[in-house]
Amino acid sequence: MEKPLRILGIDPGTTVTGYGLVEVRDKKPVILHMGNITPKRYSDHYMRLKYLHERALHLVKEYRPDVMAIEAPFYGKNVQSMLKLGRGQGVLMAAALMFDVPIHEYAPLLVKQAITGMGRASKEQVAYFLQKVYDLKDMDKVLDETDAVAVAICHFIQMNKPQKSKAYKNWGDFVKKNPGKVK
Question: 10, 41, 104, 126: which has the fewest C-beta neighbours closer than 10 Å?
């Protein structure tokens, strides 16, 4: 029996960071745990980053994920907020990299599309779909937690999508791109 794949999903934020641990068993995702990191008690941005990094290190040590799936920052109106979010995402990624955990980033639209079928779905709609499909009982969770689980499940879905084949313009192009296959 092959070892189940563990995916640590992250919805990054410097006020609240959601995380969700999903394990793939018999080719199906199973939600093992969800929670959040709340560095908002620190007023200093750099202390928040330190706290995020320490907690992320703890998560990686405790859950031993095979991969981290993290939501990519999206461009909003406030450039300063995006910069701070990017820094937060960076320290979270650094924690995974310290343990050689590969990282995959997913755009928010792709995550929502994967879970609800609608790229512009709200956080509440994502949570609702997860509740119905995965029979989540305790839905007084923070929406950042369900978003993190959604990122992990999005990674699972993306893993199982067939890769696009290489496009070749003509026979000469095929030969040029595959010299070892033609004698």
Answer: 41
Q: How far apart are CA 58 and CA 53, in angstroms?
A: 9
Alpha helices in the chain (DSSP H): 45-63, 79-98, 108-116, 123-134, 143-159, 171-177
pTM: 0.85
Tokens 């995916």, residue located = 7
> What's phi and psi for 26, nearest 5 deg?
50, 45
**Residue 183 — very low, low, confident or very high, per pLDDT cuts 50/70/90?**
low
Name which of 77-81, 87-91, 125-129 the model is least confident about: 77-81
Alpha-carbon distances of 6 from 21, 47, 126, 135, 153, rounded to whole Å:
7, 29, 21, 19, 11
Q: How far apart are the first and last CA of the chain?
A: 40
Q: Which residues are catalytic?
A: 11, 71, 144
d(CA 59, CA 80): 28
Q: Is residue 22 within a helix (H) or strand (E), and if so which, with residue range?
A: strand 17-25
What is the pLDDT, as a whole number, of residue 178? 77
